[in-house]
Design a protein that fits this description.
Elements: H1 20-24, E1 28-31, E2 34-37, E3 44-45, E4 48-49, H2 51-64, E5 70-78, E6 87-96, E7 100-109, E8 112-122, E9 149-150, H3 161-166, E10 167-171, E11 188-195, H4 203-209, E12 223-225, E13 228-235, E14 244-249, E15 253-254, E16 257-265, E17 271-280, E18 283-286
Antiparallel strand pairs: 1-2, 2-6, 3-4, 5-8, 5-13, 6-7, 7-8, 9-10, 10-11, 11-14, 12-18, 13-17, 14-16, 15-16, 16-17
């Protein structure tokens, strides 16, 4: 059984936000531990709502009743693709601690679970608060953003549809050979990420960023819908305002499955999110692609 939700002042949920992204992840309290949501096809890729947007909706529900402000660790199983119709999120608290709290959140549509997640929330304080220990690796090297390729003009069997209208994703040209039928032979993607509307990055946007790049197996000339089965991501720091840099790579592809590791870095050069997922090699995958990417 889940623990009862803690009591919070009325109006804890944010007022309706102005950006399309915030509209897409909006939730409404519908009872004790229950929130109404509607998967938004304005963030669809090949007809399926992006998993990061779904996760952001669930995190908004979890953080509404969390004793801590940030989703430190989130593990999600994608069970089926939702329709852009009303659904709800059930939140049950498994643990309340002074340092961390853990909840189970389930996105349900027509009585069936669509996405099952476990979220641990906590604080992200100043490194000086823990003895000053702080270290991070180097952010990914990218060409200037104006030399990178946007996805807004993508066309063909892997159309980015609504997603590209909302997200300004600029890919490193070194990872876009697959768009010309000349894959680089390495399963990796990297580029710059931001919304087309002005909005500072936060936990919700990081949930989208970790799942924003085209599947890394496109670099092996395997182009097709590659559904994520399980994704775990960590929030490592509160991002500074500005454009995010995202880099993803794969360690192993076999038996119809591939893994994908992603890192998100903020404009201050700090690692702010990490993720790892397991996904199916593209359904209806093709060895060549007719996709074209516009340079912005």
């Amino acid at each position: 059984m889940g623990m009862s939700r803690p009591t919070h002042p009325a109006g804890r949920l944010p007022a309706p936000a102005m950006t399309v992204f915030d509209e897409a992840i909006a939730v409404r309290v519908a009872g004790e531990g229950r929130y109404e949501v509607t998967p938004d096809d304005r963030f669809a890729i090949s007809g399926a709502v992006n998993g990061g947007v779904l996760l952001a909706s669930m995190l908004r529900a979890v953080l509404d009743s969390s004793p801590h402000p940030y989703p430190i660790a989130t593990s999600a199983h994608f069970l089926r693709a939702p329709r852009p119709e009303p659904a709800h999120v059930d939140v049950a608290w498994l643990k309340h601690g002074k340092v961390a709290a853990t909840a189970r959140a389930t996105l349900i549509q027509d009585g069936r679970p669509v996405l099952e997640s476990t979220v641990t929330t906590g604080a992200l304080g100043d490194p000086a608060d823990v003895g000053g220990l702080s270290w991070t690796g180097e952010p990914p090297g990218l060409p200037p953003i104006e030399e990178c390729h946007g996805i807004e003009n993508a066309a063909g069997p892997r159309a980015f549809s609504g997603f590209a209208k909302q997200v300004d994703l600029r890919l490193d040209p070194a990872t876009t050979g697959w768009t010309r039928g000349e894959p680089g032979g390495t399963p990796e993607m990297r580029g710059y990420f931001q919304l087309r509307e002005s909005r500072d990055p936060d936990a919700y946007l990081l949930a989208l960023a970790v799942d924003s790049l085209p599947p890394v197996v496109f670099g092996l000339a395997v182009v097709g819908w590659s559904p994520t089965v399980e994704l775990t991501w960590y929030m490592r720091a509160v991002p500074a305002p500005g454009v995010l840099r995202v880099a993803a790579r794969c360690r192993h592809v076999s038996g119809g499955w591939f893994d994908e590791e992603a890192e998100v870095w903020d404009s201050a050069g700090r690692l702010v999110a990490q993720s790892r997922q397991i996904a199916l090699v593209g359904r209806g995958a093709r060895a060549r692609s007719n996709l074209t990417l516009g340079q912005s």
